[in-house]
Amino acid sequence: MSGPEAKLIRNGRDLAALEPEWWELWRRARTSTPFQSPAWLIPWWRHFHPGKLTTAAAWRGERLIGLAPFYREDGSNRRRLLPIGISISDHHDVLLDQELEQEAARRLVEAFEQEPSWDSLELEELTPGAAALSLPRPAGCEELLVDHSACPVLALSGAELARFVPKAKRANLNTARNRSARRGPVTIARAEGAAIPHALDHLIRLHSLRWDGRGEQGVLSDPRVVAFHRDAAPRLDTAGLLRLYTLALDGEVIAALYGLHQGGRSYSYLTGFDPAYGFESPGLILLAHVIEEALAEGASEFHFLRG
Fold it and tell me: Is residue 225 within 8 Å of residue 269, measured between CB atoms?
């Protein structure tokens, strides 16, 4: 390929084959998050594949300069292009090469215009300043922007929690730590490599306990979601993006947190704790530890994501 080119990827095999170039683009893209990485989206497609893959890729020579991972949902009244990763991803977006954003955006839209069989292209949960907001409007389309989920962000300023956490919150944390210490030693561990499957077992168990106590089903009650995370978590770990922690009290794991980390941003994605230990607030203790770890890694933002 000698010049710019745009095409549609229509099967999972070709999507997976794109992974090396995808990673390179993800690292160059200005607005990338872990939710746009191949470590997250290739497993998502493998385990869910709810429609017809319709992913746009834009190239300049052998360099991938844009990627819009979508699939087509054929409903009774309309055909929608929806982002891969929908439902369990907190942020969606397209990837644009930072040096060639306008060209990449134009090429991605040209690729979608080659596909006549859709009525709407929908992107939920965009962050402020998302690359997708700069896409040219496809011919014959109208643009509609609506509010979506609130995703609180804690600005991390200073080298310790006391610098930016209110006094009342610090008092609650100290109370939780003291109560836990009276019941036994507290151990917090980060799971990496071979320890990931066992830590996920704890997360699934504790997440279910929390939601069962409310008489509801959590997201991990779906076997497909569990299979997805068992596939994605090791990939995220290999890429340096996974932050999976467990908290044990007197040797028993009673809290877990599934987080992500990229550059100056850390994310709390899923948590679980044993309601029987609500008096000790293990979730609060673990969250404080994870934020402290994010500070140590140089993060300037801690994202709580949806809910």
Answer: no
pLDDT tens string 156-215: 977 778 777 888 999 999 999 999 999 999 999 999 999 999 999 999 999 999 887 777
Going by the DSSP 8-state scheme, the letter that residue 242 receives in this structure is E
* Residues in a beta bridge with 153: 303
**Cα–Cα nearest to 304, from 292, 291, 293, 289:** 291
Helix, strand, coil fractions of the chain, as percent rounded to 5: 40, 25, 35
283, HSE (Cβ side, Cα atoms, 13 Å) = 16
Q: Which of 172, 102, 174, 115 is nearest to 141 (CA)?
A: 115
In one-letter notation, the amino acid at residue 245 is: Y
Is 231:46 a contact under the CB 8 Å cutoff?
yes
Query: Count H helices, E strands: the chain?
Result: 8, 14
Neighbours of 257 (CB within 10 A): 25
Q: In what order do the strands lie in the sheet with 95-96?
A: 4-9, 55-60, 63-68, 95-96
Report the side by side order of strands in the sheet with 153-155.
153-155, 301-303, 265-273, 252-262, 242-249, 186-191
- Residue 196 structure tokens: 């990931």
Residue 228 tokens read as 């997805």
Q: Which residues pair with 188 in a beta bridge?
A: 247
Residue 88 β-bridge partners: none
Question: What tokens does 19 get?
Answer: 């992974």
In the structure encoding, which two tokens stand for residue 286, read together? 């673990």
User: Is pTM beyond 0.90 here?
Assistant: yes
For 42-73, write each residue's pLDDT tens digit: 999 999 999 999 999 999 999 999 999 999 99
- Give the β-pairing of 301-303 and 153-155: antiparallel
Amino acid sitting at position 293: E
For the chain, how long is the longest CA-to-CA vector? Answer: 68
Type of residue numbered 236? L
Contact between 153 and 112 (Cβ < 8 Å): no
